[in-house]
Description:
InterPro entries: Spore_V_AE (IPR014204), SpoVA (IPR005562). By secondary structure, the chain is mainly α. It contains six helices and no strands. The longest helix is centred in the last third of the chain and has 28 residues, at 85-112. The protein starts with a helix and ends in a 5-residue tail after the last helix.
Amino acid sequence: MEKFIWAFIVGGGICVIGQIMMDVFKLTPAHTMTTLVVSGAVLGGLGLYDPLVEFAGAGATVPISSFGNSLVKGALMEAERSGIIGVLTGIFEVTSSGVSAAIIFGFMAAIFFKPKG
């Protein structure tokens, strides 16, 4: 039960930070999302995001900052195996399933529902 509470607090805290960035600092949603992705990448590169995931579970893996962490983790893993070219291929290898799923489900939703534009 305690893990659920920490997941809620950490995930909610990341969302609150994003909302403050938009409301107080008047950043656009694109700037806010980019900042959160880069923050997750920096924390992942410094080895600080994985302990947060261990502590908060889905509270740290669901927000967009986890995407930045995944990018860095994939790049570092593949760079150890393949050298400098692995930095690029590792990014695609680790994140391709999530991006592919988003594209496929977005396309399917567009087929079944009429988008408003």
